[in-house]
Amino acid sequence: MRPSYNTAEETEFTSTSFGVKLRVPGGWSVNQIALTKGSCVAYFSTGPYKATTRELRPSVVLLVKQPEKNETLEEFSKRFLSKGSFEPFAPSRRPAESCIARKGIQSGMYGNDGDGHGRLVIFEKNQPDFPGLIFEAPSDPPKADSSDGVQHYRARQIQARIPGKLYYVVVLDAAASIEEPAMKDYANHSCAMASNSPRCSLIHASMAG
User: Fold this and answer.
1) Per residue in 148-178, pLDDT tens?
2) N or C: which end of the chain has fewer CB within 10 A?
3) Residues 6+ apart with CB under 8 A from 131
């Protein structure tokens, strides 16, 4: 995943290999953008917000991964639902028909600032019908230098979208005492929950990579 553009208001990140384009507000901290163990990981912090005893930053994490062999989405989701107690919740937007949404609580995780309160949205997307197309984005024409003669420009190479089905996980982690502002960040800006928002999008589209 790489930055597509960067302004004071927001930064756009794109990973065509994993079918992801997302925009995050300029005030968010980028903790990790990586390809690790076959997964695409984007880890951000929002805030800070005043908790009971200190300032804390909620975390928003996006993970994209190919399923293991015949692994179902339900089996994949259990990797993230083993610590704490979880119950279903209704996300404001469903990013896909096959979607698992859970609200989690981890007791005592943040001490005097409250239990750990989380949201997980886990879903799957199949390979698009036209994987040879890329994400559309505005770009300036190449600029010529001052030298004479004909100049040739080489198009930027891109990687192809990983074939087959991909599983996506979007996680919010926050202390109970800052759950309200954390949920606003998650609902308004998180890539999966606001897939149709102009401010942030997780787009699984026809593309090359």
Assistant:
1) 667 666 656 556 778 889 999 999 999 999 9
2) C
3) 160, 161, 163, 206, 207, 208, 209
Which residues share a beta bridge with 48?
none
Domain 2-134+159-189 CATH assignment equals 3.40.1000: yes
* Entry pTM: 0.78
Say if CB 56 and CB 48 are below 8 A apart. Answer: yes
Please say whether the beta carbons of 171 and 41 come within 8 A. no
For residues 106 and 172, what is the distance between their CA atoms, to the nearest angstrom? 13
What single-letter amino acid sits at 8? A
pLDDT in tens, 24-75: 888 899 999 888 888 899 999 999 999 999 999 999 999 999 999 899 999 9
Contacts of 60 (CB under 8 A, 6+ apart): 28, 43, 44, 45, 46, 170, 171, 172, 185, 186, 189, 190
CA distances from 131 to 19, 24, 64, 134 (A): 10, 25, 17, 8
What DSSP letter does each residue of 21-58 carry, written as one string? Answer: EEEEETTSEEEEEEEETTEEEEEEE---EE-SSSEE--
Reference 77, options 59, 58, 104; nearest CA is: 104
Amino acid at 207: M
